[in-house]
Design goal:
This protein is mainly α and 775 residues long. It has 36 helices and 6 strands. InterPro entries: Ion_trans_dom, Volt_channel_dom_sf.
């Protein structure tokens, strides 16, 4: 998007002293600097005007309520397909059209709001804004035409429904999804050459098959001619690449002469294993290349915004420009209004290392990163039993119990108990011995929880961030509920609710999930998956967009062609899924009648089945029979877009994200915050907060932060400590960005804004980049 970020930082607010009082000018400069810092903190690249009115509108534009509202209207707009014909929950056309007009009004209002904070030249050059406006106009035209035709009982197609994901993609809040689409767009040229070579191979083998088998009079299992039509051969061999029709497609030739199996083996090796692997390699290589280019842009844009903020607030002290401590405090409070006083004081100690009363440029540029690192203020707490009965809780026997619970052997013993319990769950529970053993295991688990609550302060043990402790306790409660319910149900002989019994069985099996809690490496892997979860949602949005477009097209093309009847019905119409064209077809024989495009939910299920690719050729063949053979192109197109392109990009993303996040879990990263906490002697390591290593009972609490030196600090704290909430970053993009930023020299200004926006993957940069060469 050339030119999309050029206004911010170029038109800087510099009001004349004669026009506004100095205090008002200072406040406006502070708001402008805070806007730059906030954009750097959240990696926003929204160009905005720097007039006082535009800055206030920009703050309102970025307010969380506005973002929630726009996402609400996007969800409403997308969900209208559930209520429009063909509908899962039918509503009158007037109701759905009014709802859509309301959504379009909200989108237009958001666009006008964006135009108010963006320079006009930048706004009209931004492709996103043009797409949104064109989509709004086309949707209104389609609504008018469709409503007019419906008024005279003429059925038409609501073609604009397929354009609804445009709003999800193009609003500034969806920059992650746009970045993914850019990765796909940038990867397409290289994939195209591989795909053309792949199709050439399929065509070559199709011609071979036509010459080898076309004139031998072979028949398929259905009694149809075998490999006599070139188009059918191409389709069957394309399906064979996905292995969905293997070995069925080979059997007529193989039964005729076993030597013909060599043809299919050769085809499978070349096209399934070699070409599909090449697809993944090309996608992965290009994805990494363009991802690094995007991250490089983000890193430089972030540096550029922080320099702009510094230039607004800087004053000259001696020979260097700095930001005074008071201004720094006000800036941090504006950017992060909910930051606690101890947290703010800690960040200031890091930024103003020498306690000089000001922050230099190098330390100021780290402010956005410091605000992104979550620091927890914790207060040392005593166990309630120590207050209620101190002599008993501090007795030798009590201390022995506490040491036992804190020892690693205690965890090992319960690991063995869990594994033994897994064996017993797999055995026949109708055996009285097995039934009594369930109660024994449950009692041991309850004793474990009680011992931990006796050893560790309860509010600390069930703290907000003690995920595994909550998980462990909830699993034990579920096991207790399951065991009691199972005993009650067995005692009531007349009770035969299969659903309740299923729930009981699932709750009992969930007990085995405690293995994840007990084995450290399992916890590392699961935690890594949780960390990359937010970025996985980006691809969830991408898949939603593609599914929605294909679902709308499928509903318009195939709705009503296949109908589902109760499986117990044996009428001729029910046996052919309500369409005589499916008589004697594999689609009807396999009772795939519920796989249809008669509503949005059914369409999504069909598309999910197509993504899995098993039996997808039967689905394609069935819908081709009820419409036209050209309908197979719809299913082939879906396979190319989703399975070959998007799924491979998703695999590349998961590989990259997991490698980065998993390697970070195993590394020892010490930030400036951690070092300062250690220097002040008020730190608690994250490892000490884990189950089994709680050396102190702690609870999150906001307290004062005062004192001058380290000793006085410890006295004034009265139990106040700090720790980094996590050594992991929120997203993989943020981690990669920080890895790149570590290679940028702190004193360097960086390239100009135009040069940053014109970066390309072909631009090479050294480990410690020289920005002139990089640009």
């Amino acid at each position: 998007m050339p030119g999309a970020g050029r206004a911010a930082g170029v038109r800087r607010l510099r009001p004349q002293p004669s026009e506004e009082p100095p205090a008002q000018e200072e406040d406006q400069n502070l708001l402008l600097a805070a806007a730059y810092v906030s954009d750097a903190q959240y990696n926003r690249n929204v160009p905005f005007e720097t007039s006082p009115r535009a800055i206030r509108l920009y703050y309102f534009y970025n307010h969380w309520t506005m973002q929630v509202a726009i996402y609400f209207f996007i969800c409403v707009d997308l969900s209208l397909a559930l209520f429009e014909e063909p509908a899962l929950f039918p509503l009158p056309f007037l109701a759905t059209s009014l709802a859509e007009v309301l959504c379009l009004t909200a989108f237009f209002g958001r666009l006008v709001h964006f135009a108010k904070v963006t320079p006009q030249m930048v706004f009209w050059k931004d492709t996103k804004n043009i797409c949104i406006m064109v989509t709004i106009v086309l949707t209104l035209i389609d609504l008018i035409i469709y409503g007019s035709l419906e008024a005279v009982n003429v059925h038409s197609v609501r073609w604009s429904r397929a354009l609804r994901p445009v709003f999800l993609i193009n609003f500034p809040e969806s920059r992650q999804i746009r970045r993914t689409f850019r990765s796909i767009r940038n990867t397409l040229p290289d994939i195209l050459y591989v795909f053309l070579l792949f199709m050439f191979s399929v065509l070559m083998f199709s011609l071979m098959a036509l010459k080898l088998f076309g004139d031998r009079g072979l028949k398929t299992v259905e009694g149809l001619p075998y490999f006599t039509n070139i188009l059918d051969i191409v389709f069957e061999l394309y399906v064979l690449v996905t292995t969905a029709n293997s070995p069925d497609v080979m059997m007529p030739a193989y039964n005729f002469n076993w030597w013909y199996c060599l043809y299919f083996i050769t085809y499978t090796i070349i096209n399934t294993y070699i070409f599909m692997s090449v697809f993944l390699a090309v996608v992965y290589n290009n994805y990494r290349k363009h991802l690094k280019n995007e991250i490089r842009k983000l890193a430089y844009l972030k540096r550029h915004k922080m320099i702009e903020a510094f230039n607004i607030l800087k004053v000259k002290v001696g020979t260097e420009f700095v930001v005074m401590e008071a201004q720094w405090r006000r800036l941090a409070k504006v950017v992060a209004p909910h930051i606690s006083s101890p947290h703010l004081e800690l960040l200031l100690r890091i930024s103003d290392e020498g306690q000089k009363g000001h922050v230099d440029k190098v330390n100021f540029l780290r402010l956005a990163d410091l605000l992104n690192i979550q620091v927890v203020t914790i207060n040392i707490r005593r166990h309630p039993l120590e207050d209620w009965m101190p002599r008993v809780y501090r007795s030798s026997a009590s201390l022995l119990v506490q040491r036992m619970v804190q020892h690693r052997i205690f965890v090992w013993v319960y690991d063995v108990i869990i594994l033994i319990n897994a064996i017993f769950i797999a055995l026949d529970e109708r055996n009285p011995f097995i039934s009594y053993a369930e109660w024994l295991f449950l009692s041991l688990y309850i004793i474990e929880i009680l011992l931990k609550l006796y050893t560790y302060e309860p509010r600390a043990y069930f703290g907000r961030r003690q995920f595994w402790n909550w998980f462990d306790t909830l699993i034990i409660i579920a096991a207790l509920v399951a065991t009691v319910a199972n005993t009650t149900i067995q005692s009531a002989r007349k009770y035969n609710s299969q659903q309740i019994l299923d729930i009981v069985l699932i709750l009992r099996i969930l007990r085995l999930l405690r293995i994840i809690v007990s084995i450290q490496r399992f916890r590392v892997i699961v935690t890594t998956l949780i960390n990359i979860g937010p970025t996985i949602l980006t691809f969830g949005g991408l898949v939603l967009v593609v599914y929605y477009v294909f679902a709308i097209i499928g509903m318009e093309a195939f709705h009503g062609k296949v109908r589902f009847s109760d499986p117990n019905f044996t009428s001729p119409d029910a046996l052919v899924c309500g369409n005589p064209a499916l008589k004697d077809s594999a689609f009807a024989r396999d009772r795939y009648c519920k796989n249809n495009f008669n509503d949005l939910a059914s369409s999504f299920i069909v598309l999910m089945e197509l993504t899995v690719v098993n039996q997808w050729h039967i689905l394609a063949g069935g819908f081709a029979l009820v419409t036209h053979q050209a309908a197979k192109l719809y299913f082939i197109g879906f396979h190319i877009v989703v399975v070959i392109l998007i799924v491979n990009i998703f695999i590349a993303f998961i590989l990259e994200a997991f490698f980065v996040a998993y390697s970070l879990e195993k590394s020892e990263v010490e930030t400036a915050i951690e070092k300062k906490i250690q220097e002040l002697g008020v730190g608690i390591q994250e490892e000490e907060m884990q189950d089994g290593k709680l050396v102190d009972n702690v609870d999150a609490k906001d307290s004062g932060f005062s004192g001058d030196d380290g000793d006085n600090k410890r006295k004034d704290l009265k139990g106040l400590y700090f720790r980094i909430a996590s050594k992991k970053y929120r997203t993989v993009d943020a981690l990669l960005q920080q890895m790149f930023e570590s290679e940028i020299a702190p004193e360097e200004e960086g390239p100009s804004l135009d040069e940053i926006l014109n970066f390309s993957p072909g631009d090479l940069y050294p480990k410690n980049p020289n920005f002139e060469n990089s640009a």
